[in-house]
Each structure stands twice: as C-alpha cells, then as structure tokens.
Amino acid sequence: MWAEVRAEAARLRGLFEAAGAAVVETGILQPAATLLDLYGEDMRARAYVTSDPLKGEQMLRPDFTVPVVEMHMAEGAEPARYTYAGEVFRRQEEDAARASEYMQVGYEVFERGAAAACDAEVFALIHDILAPLGLRAATGDIGILRAAVEGLSTSDARKAALRRHLWRPRRFRQLIERFAGRMAVPASRVALLAADNPMADAGPMIGLRGEAEIAARIEVLRADAATPPLAAGEVALLDAILAVRETAPNALARFHDIAVDMPAIADAVAGVEARLEAMAARGIDVDTLPFEASYGRTQMEYYDGFVFGFTCEARPDLPPIATGGRYDALTRQLGRGREIPAVGGVIRPGLVCALRGQGGEA
User: Fold this and answer.
1) pLDDT tens-digit profile of 226-261?
2) Is the peptide bond before 316 cis (omega within 30 degrees of 0)?
3) Are 350 and 103 contacting, i.e. CB atoms less than 8 angstroms apart?
C-alpha cells in the first residue's frame, strides 16, 4: 500500500514542480511551542507530543504549512512557490478507522498584490489534477465573516473574542447570543461582579493564578457586563451571512445585498468577485461552483480568507481529498514583524489511491 501511495505522492509533487514550485523539505519533529501559540492547548488533543531534553516539547508534524511559512519568512525570496510531500500525524480519539499517519502533497504561493489571481491559481491547479476523480468542490471565504465581526458596533474586547472563536461555530454562536443579551447571566456571576470586594470571602488561594490576575479578570468581566448588547439588526446580518449556501454567483449577489446594510464587508465581497473572475479566466465553471459562507470553520484554523475543499460524494466516509486556502495572518504571526500574502493547498495521495482502487487509505 505505502509503495503505491508514495508513488502517487511523487507524481503529484512532480505536477506541482512543473507548475513552477520549488521542492522543499521540513523536519518531522516540530517545536510544540509554536503550534500551541497558534492553536492553543486544543492542539494537544490532535497531535502526538514528545519531549527532548535539549529542545523541549516537540510534536510530530501535524501539517506542512506552519514549517513552510517559517522557512519562507526566514530566508525565502519573493514571490515564491513551494511544493512538498511527506507524512503528517494526527491523533484519532473518536474514529479508530481514520488514519493517524498519512501522506500530504502541497503547493504554496507567497506573492504580493495578486490575491485573486493566486487564489485562482492554487484552486484551478488542484481542481484540474483531481478532475478525473469526479469530486465535489466546496468553496468559502472566512474573510467575509471576519470583516463582519470587525464592523460590529461593540467593544474591541468582544470583537477579539469573536475572532478567536471563528473556527469554533458552537462557541461563536454562544458568544453572539451572550453579547446580544439573549442568554441569562448566572446569578453567581452577577453577585461576583456587584461585590465591592469580590475576594473578601474567597478563602485560601489554590492553583496557579494569583490574586492580581483574578482581580484583573474580574475587571474585564465588569467591563463586558457594562457593554451595551449587540444590535438586533447586526445579529440578523451576521445570521444572514452564515446562512449563505448557494452557487458562487448567487452567493455573491446575496453578499452584495447584505453589504448595503453592512458596509464593513464590502472589500471582502469585492475580493470574492475578483476571485471568481480569475477562476473563470482559468477555465473553472464558476456558475455551478458551490459556495458556503461557513465552509472550513471547524478544521481550517489558520485560514483567514478564501477556503476550499474537494470531497467524494460516493464515499461520505472519507475526509476531504484536498483542502486549502489563504493564510495571510499566519505569515504575520510567524514573520517576526514581516508578512506576505500567502495561499496554498494539500492533496492526500492515499485517498487518491483509494478512489482509484489502488489501496491507499481506507
């Protein structure tokens, strides 16, 4: 099985190399601190963690994007295109049938001033490579929702909380309901925030947080409690954005309508329009291309703009065969003061082999 998968990975990497990408390699062991800073402690549930006496906590490579971005920001020229192939590792705690080690082949583009064209380039390249498999494409744009959050008439702290949970739809919805005043505040919290000295009857200090840290957190909660609720009209517009699930042209028309009442999303909508034009120029049938405003919000944590995936409708048991998107914000986080627009995508050769009946992932 692995021989066929490796051969397919080499073929796919060769196609990306022929498209102008330079081949790069990254270490299998990655510093855990970088990944935890990006994704939080939730990452431990999805990664294999080990420890080195000199290098500290390490993780088996959960994906290639982070180390490729770090490499480019440290030493890469601009513009740049990279390709790679190798194993990634993901813990599977809910489905033993899902692979915990599998191959990824990727294509990453770092280029300024050509976001729509680069988005279309990556999508069209992967679309054309996978076309013989008859997969279903899905597209979205996290940037629309991010822009909507930035345009809300509320505090910076609340906007930051919503941004932080864009990739956790349930928690995001809970925050919207709370910020809109639709959720009852627990009586214990009301009493705590109303007390002149909340620490008076706290008892002995237990745990890692000190009294100053706890007091600072209480002040944050007090400031939030004093913030006016989100306007019902703004919540309705957020709901309208999240409900968009159409063909791309119909989704674009819907976003234009919403932008009349929420001008903050106008630039992001213009970006969607430019991307569709660039895709059409590369031969993509955008008239039938699906667009889902919420696509990618549960598994694509570092994407902040265009997102896409390819799935096999005849095999709903399989994860996406390919995924990708734009991750400009990630280059800012890892660039130590530098940044560059970036977009990329990955294909799982094991799943390609499985769909061809050549073994591969089950």
Assistant:
1) 778 999 999 999 999 999 999 999 999 999 999 999
2) no
3) yes
The distance of Cα 177 from the centroid of its chain, to the nearest Å, equals: 23
* Phi then psi dihedrals of residue 47, to 5 deg: -120, 155
C-alpha–C-alpha distance, residues 287 and 247, integer Å: 7
Task: Output the six-digit token pair for 136.
Answer: 């279903």
Q: Per DSSP, what are the bridge partners of residue 80? A: 110
The one-letter code for the residue type at 285 is D
For the chain, the farthest-separated pair of C-alpha atoms sits apart, in whole angstroms, at: 70
**In terms of Cα–Cα distance, which of 357, 265, 275, 353 is closest to 308?**
275
Cα–Cα distance, 98 to 317 (Å, whole number): 9
Question: Which domains occur in the chain, in start order?
Answer: 1-133+337-362 (3.30.930.10), 156-233 (no CATH)
In angstroms, the CA 88 to CA 54 distance is 23
37-44: long-range pairs with CB below 8 Å, 24+: 37/333, 38/66, 38/301, 38/302, 38/330, 38/333, 39/301, 39/302
**89 vs 13, 100, 178, 211, 362, CA distance in Å?**
19, 6, 37, 40, 16
| 298-345: pLDDT as tens digits | 665 678 899 999 999 999 989 999 999 999 988 888 877 788 999 999
**308 with 323: CB under 8 angstroms?**
yes
Gap between the Cα atoms of 348 and 310, Å rounded: 11
